[in-house]
Amino acid sequence: MQFLILIVSLINTIHCDDDGLNRVQNQLSEESLTPYINQHGSRLSHRSIQECHTLEHGSPPHELYEAHKTLNLSEPFVKVKRFVKEIKSSFIPKTVRGHYVIVFNPIKTLSVLEPDQPGGCSLNIRQTVAATSKKNNCVVAINAGYFDTKDGKCLGNVVSDGRIAHDSKGIQNAHFGLTKDEQIFIGYISEDSVLSGNILQLVGGVIWIIRNGTGFVNSSKKLECEKTEETGPMDHFANILSARTAVGHDKDGNVVLVQVDGKSSTDGVNLYDMEILLKEFGLVNVINLDGGGSSTLVINGTTANYPYDSCDDQNFACDRKVSTVLCVHSPYCDPSDCNGHGTCSMGECLCEKNWLPPKCDQLFCSKTNCSNKGICTNEGCMCHPGFLGEDCNENCLDGWYGNMCSKQCECYNSLGCDPITGTCRCKSGFTGEKCQNSCPVGFFGVNCHLKCQCNHSCFCDPITGACEVLHNTSFYEAAKCEAENIIRQQNLIKDNVGERRKWYITMVILGIITAACLASFLLMMFCSCSCYCQNEQLLCLKNERKPQKKYRLQLPSGYLSDSLSDSETVPMQNLQKA
Ligand SMILES: *[C@@H]1O[C@H](CO)[C@@H](O)[C@H](O)[C@H]1NC(C)=O
Ligand SMILES: *[C@@H]1O[C@H](CO)[C@@H](O)[C@H](O)[C@H]1NC(C)=O
Ligand SMILES: *[C@@H]1O[C@H](CO)[C@@H](O)[C@H](O)[C@H]1NC(C)=O
Ligand SMILES: *[C@@H]1O[C@H](CO)[C@@H](O)[C@H](O)[C@H]1NC(C)=O
Ligand SMILES: *[C@@H]1O[C@H](CO)[C@@H](O)[C@H](O)[C@H]1NC(C)=O
Ligand SMILES: *[C@@H]1O[C@H](CO)[C@@H](O)[C@H](O)[C@H]1NC(C)=O
Ligand SMILES: *[C@@H]1O[C@H](CO)[C@@H](O)[C@H](O)[C@H]1NC(C)=O
C-alpha cells in the first residue's frame, strides 16, 4: 500500500515537478491543489500563479451581480441539496457526487470567516471547518480560501463582515465577494478596491470557472498568470481529478456553494468537468476555491461530505484544518449585536424592554417616553420630582411632593406645596416658610405682596385688602394704633409745636383770669367787712333788702364793665353818690 502511494507520488512528481517532492515528504498531507507552495521558490514551481504581477491600481476584469435580497422569514434562508450526476467528461462519462447549497439572502446570511476566530489570519491559525462553524453558529459552512500549508498563512484577500483580515496586495486571482451596496463580486480585484471600504465579504480562489454563464477556465488560466509562460503547471492544476469546492451565483442572485467529493489524482473532477457540471446547474459566475483534502462541507456542525485526509488511524479519513470558511448563518441583525440591547433572531433584533426596534439603539418607555417628565431607563420611567406613574404623566397628590411624590408637604395655612420643591403655597393672607405667619400690618393678599391702600389706617383685610372689614378686632386695634403712631411720628410733628404754643397761651390766659377773680372776691369780702364794722351802719341797714349788693366790690370805672349789667351798677353808683 505504502509502495503504491509512493508510485503515485512519483508519477505526480513527474507531472508536478518539485511540488511532487513536497508531497512525498509530507505523505500526501499537502496535495497538488494547493496553489501557492514554494511561493518564492524555483521557476519550476507548478503553482506559477503566485508569480503573477499584483495590481494595486486600476480596474481588473470582474463581474458585479445584484444579490438576491428579499428574505421571506417563513422560509429557510439556506437549502442544501445533494447530487449524484452523470456528466460527459472530456474523457469518459463519469458519476459526480456532491452538495449544492443555495443561499437566498447572501448579504445578510453569508460571511467569510477567518480560521477559528476573528484575527485567525494574522495569527496564521488553521482550524477544521466544523470547529470554526460551531464557534460562529453557522448553519452551513464550507472551506474557502487558500493557505500556506507550511505556516498556515491566509492567501488571497480576506474581508470578513466588512473587516479587512488579509490584504494580498492586488494579486490577480479569482475572488468572490459581496459588496456593501448588495452586489455579488466575481473576478479580479485591485488592492485599491479591496481597501475602498465597499467590500463586505471577500475571499480568493484560483481559476474563474464560469463567467457570464460560459466556461472561463482556459481564459482565467491566462488571466491569472498573465505574465507567466508556465501554463503547464496551471494545466495540471486544472486537469487533476480531485474533490472541489466552488462558489458563485445563479441567475436570481442567490449565492451557490458547490462541493464535489473526490480524492486527488484518483477520484472527483477536474476543472473542466466542474465547468460542465456548473453550467448544467445554470450558474452564472463561479470561481474555484481551495479543494482536494480541504474540501469540506459542514451542515449544522456536522461534516456532510467525505474529506480524505488520513486520521491517525490510517484506515479512516479526518477533516483537515483549513483556513478561511464561508459561513451561512441566520441573518445578521443591523447592527449584529443589536447595540447590546437585544438578541438577534432571523435578522431582527428582539430588543430588551424599553429599547426601540429595529436597532435597539434608543430607549422609549411606555406610551409617551415618560411625557418629558422623567428619564427613560432600562427599568422604565424615572420620573422627575413631582411626577408619578408609568409614563410620569400623573402629578403628586395634594400634600405630597418630591421624588416619587414620597415627601409630605409641611405647611400650615396653605393650598398644599410645590410638587417638585415642596415650597409651601400660602393661602392669601399668610406668609412664612411654612405659611405660619399672617401678613404683616399693612400688607395683604397672596404671599402678602400687596400693600394696603386705606386712608385712615394702615391695616386692611389681610386676604382681600378691604379697608372696612374688621376681620379681627384686637388685631384691628393694634393696626390702628400702629397707624396713628406712624401718622404722629411722620406727618404731624411741625403742627404739634404750634398746637402746644396755643395751648400754653390759653393756659396762661385762663390762669390770669382765675387769679383776677380770686383777687376781686377777696377785695369784695374786705370791703363788705369794713362797711359793716365802721361808719355806714344805717346805710347798711337800708340796704338789707338787697343783701347781694352788700358784697359788691367797687372797682375802677370801666373795669369789668363789660361783664356787669347797667341795672346792677346803678345802685352801686347811687350808693357812692349817697
Ligand atoms: C413567505 O412564504 C410563505 C410560505 O412560503 C408565503 O405564504 C408568504 O406569502 C411569503 N411571504 C412573502 C412576503 O413573500
Ligand atoms: C457579462 O454580463 C454583463 C451583463 O449581464 C455584461 O455587462 C458584461 O459585459 C458581461 N461580461 C462579459 C465578459 O461578457
Ligand atoms: C481549453 O483549452 C484546451 C487547450 O489548451 C482545449 O483543448 C480545450 O478545448 C479548451 N476548453 C474550452 C472549454 O475551451
Ligand atoms: C439544522 O438543524 C435545524 C434543527 O436544529 C434544522 O431545522 C435545519 O433544517 C438544519 N439545517 C439544515 C441546513 O439542515
Ligand atoms: C426617550 O427618552 C430618553 C430620555 O429619557 C431619550 O434618551 C430617548 O432618545 C427618547 N426616545 C425617543 C425615541 O425619543
Ligand atoms: C381715600 O381718600 C381719597 C380722597 O382723599 C378717596 O378718593 C379714596 O377713595 C379714599 N380711599 C379709601 C380706600 O377710602
Ligand atoms: C385675632 O387675633 C388674635 C391675636 O391678635 C388671634 O389669636 C386670633 O386668632 C385672631 N382671630 C381671627 C379670626 O383671625
Automatic annotation (TrEMBL):
Keyword Disulfide bond: yes
Keywords per UniProt: Disulfide bond, EGF-like domain, Membrane, Repeat, Signal, Transmembrane, Transmembrane helix
InterPro entries referenced in this protein's UniProt entry, alphabetically: EGF, LE_dom, NAGPA
Pfam families: EGF_Teneurin (PF23106), NAGPA (PF09992)
Transmembrane region(s): 503-527
BP GO terms, sorted: secretion of lysosomal enzymes
Location of the EGF-like domain: 381-392, 424-435
Highest taxon of source: Eukaryota
Signal sequence segment: 1-16
Gene3D superfamilies xrefs: Tie2 ligand-binding domain superfamily
Stored PANTHER family: N-ACETYLGLUCOSAMINE-1-PHOSPHODIESTER ALPHA-N-ACETYLGLUCOSAMINIDASE
Record's protein name: N-acetylglucosamine-1-phosphodiester alpha-N-acetylglucosaminidase
Organism: Trichonephila inaurata madagascariensis
